[in-house]
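Need tokens for this chain, all 270 residues.
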Amino acid sequence: MPTPSEAVDAALQEVQTARSLVSKIKSKQVTGVDALASLKATALAWFNTHRPVIFGAPIVDVEAADRHYTIILDSTAKRAARQTYLDALSSARLALRTIRTKVLTAPVAAPVGLDDLAPDFSPLAGNQEMRDILTRRWHECRKCVNAEAHLAAIVMMGGLLEALLVARANKMPVKDPLINATSAPKDKATGKTLNYQEWMLDSYLKDAHELGWITESAKNVADVLKEYRNYIHPEKERRHGVVLAMNDSSMFWQVTKVLVRQLLMSAGMP
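Here are the structure tokens for all 270 residues:
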């Protein structure tokens, strides 16, 4: 896997090549099939190949580069002007140079184990913006664990799991198995199943296990994580006399990673 620095360099080279190609075009508009295919490939290489590597680097903002690559990609679907491409490519090159500077001057972080690398969330999140949010949440969980910010880490883990469970439910083309499960929460007044988007983490974990999305052992430990997440309320922590100690968040982080991967794998189920 390339480093963020190598990914930026590759993107810069591709932008330079694309700009040279467009510069040689004499017409005011870019209409050639080969030229459009090359420009589209340049933009897609950023979004699909280079960006995921660079996005994980510390203190790197890819928003400006995203904006210019989007212009390039959108322009290939219409008779865009040659100058539109030249301007967008020049701006993308400038944004990439800024990213490269930040990557090269960023403080050296503690090495991340392979197991801590963020997974591909696309099986449950088709939207790139949502995948970015989930990736940021994953990294924030890891950073809290490394900093021994135990409660903060556990709260973040609970939020990440809840988001993925909602996404897994949204993924179902037919919601009948979800709402008809014996563990689905019911309205006490009507006896009807509550809207799944309003369920609490506890209900999602029970349903997820009943539907075979997660294993029983993972679900049982997640139940404990769910309870510890509730210690975000100081009075509950005082009343129960619970103090999170060294490695508590590390233990829950291992379980969270297992649950996340089980949910991602379940996306191929009906």
